[in-house]
Design brief:
The complex is a heterodimer of chains A (about 170) and B (about 270). Chain A contains eight helices and no strands. By secondary structure, chain A is mainly alpha-helical. Chain A is globular and about 55 Å long. Chain A starts with a helix and ends with a helix. Chain B is an alpha+beta fold and about 270 residues long. Chain B has four helices and nine strands. The longest helix of chain B has 28 residues. Chain B is elongated and about 70 Å long. Chain B starts with a helix and ends with a helix. The chains are: A mainly alpha (about 170), B alpha+beta (about 270).
Chain lengths: ~170, ~270
């Protein structure tokens, strides 16, 4: 896997320019900051493996995002089956510094069915249009809209419950 | 705080540790390629050693997931309403078919506008459960006119779609709705998908035909499904070839009252 300097420079610039955007998307998808960071490192590593091809795409970031999303969903599914074992080791470490609204949003996203969560994250955090979400997830535009509609409705309820619970605590 | 503002806040969230330097990511890519090549070589040797002449099926490193390059993505988050080519371009139905503020009962109801996800080119029952198959429901190809409205107060919402169908296709649409409900009732969601349970509570109580459906939408609390689902009601009322579908987070009695109002508006 020999690369010339221009390949390396182009990849490094691409990585630095897009990593924060991709992190926000994957973090919202997984609800776990450390997991999200590892997922995107893995996705970029795969991009470097085939950089000569990926770099020729009109939007290499879309390729990395798709790979990262698939890794995240795959790990999420496996993790759900292992969570009982994981809980013996206590909860995952808290993400440092997030605001209460942010925590509530990530927790609410984690409660959505994965298809709704993916649609919401791609649309609201990855800045894809409805048509692009449809393209990227391989479902019709109407299906994406239905997922966004249902997901946003459920999010609104979950967030309002979260606020109500906070006010009870306070 | 609105959901949009919360997403904006999340967008700037920093990771718990600095991102790995690019060099480390590239090294991880090289190591990954090396491991894959090694795995493939071992597999080839194992097969060859066993004297099985099926090298073709294992030769070559496992590929990363096949991802076709998506088209260039929009940098704009603005909602878009897309009508795929070949689909009937919807036009507005008469506004008097839609529920008005005074139809909703007491409360500070406000109309929610500009929500693309309640747009006119969707069907309430699309993607109702994982077994749903897009494109299967013929009546949707005979729906030249439609309209939608969403009302909200505090935590309550009322969403209405009114669809006008070509001659005879209104009744067929109700059959399609029943077909979706039957499909969802008979299918089991994948293990990682919290179920949405649709229960037909009543039929034939308004208009020429009608359905009252209770929707229990379950969700995950950590690793288990929460015992108390979100409950909402959907009513479908057909008058001739016009079908009005209303979803409310209110009670069953409230859903029935909305159905009566909607049927009266369609007469």
């Amino acid at each position: 896997m020999t690369r010339d300097v221009s390949d390396t420079d182009a990849f490094d610039a691409f990585y630095r320019a897009s990593q924060q955007r991709l992190y926000a998307c994957v973090y919202a998808l997984t609800g776990n900051a450390a997991e999200a960071q590892d997922v995107i490192h893995e996705a970029y590593a795969r991009a470097w493996q085939r950089w000569s091809t990926v770099s020729e795409y009109a939007d290499p970031e879309a390729w990395v995002r798709t790979v990262a999303r698939r890794i995240a969903v795959s790990r999420w599914r496996r993790t759900r089956n292992r969570l009982v074992a994981h809980r013996r080791h206590g909860p995952p470490p808290a993400v440092p510094g997030p605001g209460p609204g942010h925590v509530a949003l990530v927790a609410a996203l984690a409660r959505l069915p994965v298809e709704q969560r993916v649609a919401i994250v791609l649309y609201h955090l990855c800045d894809l249009s409805v048509a692009d979400v449809a393209q990227e997830t391989g479902v019709p535009v109407g299906t994406v809209k239905a997922r966004l509609s249902r997901g946003r409705r459920a999010l609104a309820i979950l967030l309002s419950r979260s606020v109500a619970e906070d006010s009870h605590v306070n | 705080m609105s959901i949009e503002l919360l997403f904006e806040e999340l967008r700037g969230q920093q990771p718990p540790a600095p991102f790995a330097p690019a060099e480390l990511v590239r090294r991880r890519g090289r190591q990954r390629a090396h491991r894959q090549a090694l795995t493939a070589s071992t597999a080839v040797l194992a097969v060859a050693g066993a004297g099985v002449g099926m090298l073709a099926s294992v030769a070559g490193p496992p590929e990363p997931p096949v991802v076709s390059p998506p088209p260039s993505t929009s940098s704009s988050a603005a909602p878009v309403s897309v009508t795929p080519s070949g689909k009937i371009e919807p036009t507005l139905v008469p506004s008097n078919a839609l529920l008005r503020r005074e139809d909703l009962g007491p409360g500070d109801w406000r109309e929610i506008s500009g929500d693309a996800f309640e747009g006119s080119d969707i069907w309430t029952w699309a993607d109702a459960c994982p077994a749903y198959v897009p494109g299967r429901y013929e009546s949707l190809r005979h729906r030249p006119r439609m309209a939608t409205v969403t009302w909200a107060k505090s935590n309550d919402t009322v969403t209405q779609h009114v669809d006008f169908f070509a001659d005879g296709w209104g009744a067929r649409n109700l059959a399609d709705v029943r077909s979706v409900l039957a499909l969802c009732a008979s299918s089991t969601p994948p293990p990682d998908v919290a179920p949405s349970v649709y229960e037909v509570v009543d039929t034939g109580f308004a208009g020429d035909d009608s359905l009252l459906v209770k929707l229990s939408q379950y969700y995950y609390e950590e690793e288990t499904i929460a015992p108390t689902p979100f409950v909402s009601y959907l009513v479908v009322i057909r008058v001739g070839d016009t079908v009005s579908t209303i979803r409310t987070s209110g009670s069953e009695a409230y859903a029935r009252s909305l159905a009566e109002r909607a049927a009266a508006l369609l007469r």
